[in-house]
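User: Some background: our group keeps a shared notebook of sequences we're curious about, and every so often someone picks one and asks for a predicted structure to add to the entry. Today it's my turn. The entry only has the sequence so far, pasted here. Could you supply the structure so I can complete it?
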Amino acid sequence: MVIELMKSHASVRDYKEKQLTREEVSELIQAAQHAATSHFVQAYSVVWVTDPEKRKKLGELSRNSKQMEGAGAVFLMCADYNRLKHAGEIQGENIVFDQAENLLVAVTDVGLLAQNLALAAESKGYGICYIGGVRNNMEAISELVGLPEGVFPVYGLTVGVPNEGNEVKPRLPVEAILHENEYDEAKYETLLPEYDMAIQQYYERRSTNQKSETWTQQMANFLKRPHRQDLKGVLAKKGFLFK
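Assistant: Of course. Here's the predicted structure to add to the notebook entry:
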């Protein structure tokens, strides 16, 4: 059942040596393409990185060497207005994509495509992991795989045969996510401490990498300082000016 498959997701960071075939990759990408897309723009591209040297360099740049070198397939999930620029040229029109709206459309399209790809892969028994670390060196990675103006990597996605099982990490309770008619922040005073207890118990009891930490501690430590402050400048070079 699809819902049970979705609820069983856990990130996989250790894979067996088996590489996905071209036919398997094509099937996964084709399934992913049937995700919803804003105004049918399909503002995405996927770079399948198969060259061992490029994968090694990609691992270094994203600070995820083990995954990039060990996965059965490595994908760069990219926002893409370059193809739309070509579409405009065929019609004698100049495509404008430097507005904030265009950036949101592309990132949303990529997210929907990637999640479809992830679900398709997991339905085949593969494990997956998103690699936000590609944004650590977006400019260098763009150069590594030849991404032109209008195209940038949003995240990586590794796929492969899991080398070991992983426990499912508890998510926030539905009540913390679902608001009816009006946004209700008062409930966080009760729900977040309860969730902290559940997460702390999960970390202490899981089979590997045990630790004692709560969700609010994690979030406070992560979000108390800015990250990847170069991104606005890198995106501007790609043509995304936030107008």
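Suggested note for the entry: The chain has two domains: 2-166+226-237, 174-219. The mean pLDDT is 95.
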